[in-house]
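Q: Got a minute? One more chain.
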Amino acid sequence: MPNEARTNTVSLEVNGRPCRVEVRPDERLLDLLRDRLGLMGTKEGCGIGECGACTVLLDGEAVNACMVPAASMDGRRVLTIEGLEGPRGELHPIQQAYIDAGAVQCGFCTPGMIMSTFALLSKHPQPSHQEIKQALSGNLCRCTGYIQIFEAVRRAAQTNEKGEQA
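A: Always. Here it is, folded:
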């Protein structure tokens, strides 16, 4: 039987919703999210885990979706940029902080940056400059020079400090 014909059924949670899907052995989580589930916010930049454009949270940890086999997703929880949307379609406070700080230019890296920020603030609500730098070290941006991105993370932490959800 050709490799393309073999599939495996996985049951996972994507953005809080149960999902059951057939996946190929060579399929990546990135492909599953974009091509099969239509979640286009997760971007493919390099395809080798270097740029962070495909960053999602897997069981609460920031990962590069281009490096994760879809077949390993059974029983796992995935959160994408689309999962941050509020109940009435409003932006998440982290997304708003990125806008307010001018940290969105071309926008290609933004979803991955926001997901890395979400993971950071979930663990360290008031991160130091070094913690921010470390958390975003796997995300590359060609446009901003990172100053606005670091400011966005600080703004999001301040919002979090005021008791809003991060």
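A: DSSP finds five helices and five strands in the chain.
Q: Perfect, thanks.
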